[in-house]
């Protein structure tokens, strides 16, 4: 019997620059506290994670600058600010572990993607260490070499031998 596929494979919003700007060392799944019709707007894909970041205050984790557009068919109870701080739901032990990691110099909390899992909005948040410019060039060079190797292997497989 086939397992019902959830939306983990298809993110609603993704931070593509995160892997370009940071070495992601650890990732953890967190729930999000949403109000009103934000979840409906999120399901339609009207959100943006590009400038988002996470902070830890008073033992709680918050997501800042994630833009969720107001729902078009919504009512007056839509939040006024689409980039308001949203609380993330994590266990205390997870927050303490993340806080200890982030306190080291050069580490930050980076939101990676938003998806729906079992009907709930989830955020994959990673602990990242900033890349320097030469690290970015090195990563691009490795990606180009991999692409060239795959292209050569495909071409070798296409060559047919005469009978």
UniProtKB/TrEMBL annotation:
<keyword id="KW-0694">RNA-binding</keyword>
<comment type="similarity">
    <text>Belongs to the SmpB family.</text>
</comment>
<comment type="function">
    <text>Required for rescue of stalled ribosomes mediated by trans-translation. Binds to transfer-messenger RNA (tmRNA), required for stable association of tmRNA with ribosomes. tmRNA and SmpB together mimic tRNA shape, replacing the anticodon stem-loop with SmpB. tmRNA is encoded by the ssrA gene; the 2 termini fold to resemble tRNA(Ala) and it encodes a 'tag peptide', a short internal open reading frame. During trans-translation Ala-aminoacylated tmRNA acts like a tRNA, entering the A-site of stalled ribosomes, displacing the stalled mRNA.</text>
</comment>
<dbReference type="InterPro" id="IPR000037">
    <property type="entry name" value="SsrA-bd_prot"/>
</dbReference>
<dbReference type="Pfam" id="PF01668">
    <property type="entry name" value="SmpB"/>
</dbReference>
<keyword id="KW-0963">Cytoplasm</keyword>
<dbReference type="InterPro" id="IPR023620">
    <property type="entry name" value="SmpB"/>
</dbReference>
<protein>
    <recommendedName>
        <fullName>SsrA-binding protein</fullName>
    </recommendedName>
</protein>
<dbReference type="InterPro" id="IPR020081">
    <property type="entry name" value="SsrA-bd_prot_CS"/>
</dbReference>
């Amino acid at each position: 019997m086939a397992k019902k596929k959830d939306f983990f494979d298809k993110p609603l919003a993704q931070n593509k620059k995160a892997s370009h700007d940071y070495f992601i060392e650890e990732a953890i799944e967190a729930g999000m506290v949403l109000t009103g019709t934000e979840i409906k707007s999120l399901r339609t894909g009207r959100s943006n994670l590009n400038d988002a970041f996470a902070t830890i205050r008073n033992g709680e984790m918050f997501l800042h600058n994630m833009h969720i557009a107001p729902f078009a068919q919504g009512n007056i109870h839509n939040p006024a600010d689409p980039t308001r701080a949203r609380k993330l739901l994590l266990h205390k032990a997870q927050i303490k572990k993340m806080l200890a990691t982030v306190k080291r110099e050069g580490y930050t909390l980076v939101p990676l993607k938003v998806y729906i899992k079992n009907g709930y909005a989830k955020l994959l948040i990673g602990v990242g260490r900033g890349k320097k410019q030469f690290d970015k060039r090195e990563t691009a060079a490795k990606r180009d070499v991999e692409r060239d190797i795959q292209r050569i292997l495909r071409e070798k497989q296409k060559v047919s031998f005469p009978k």
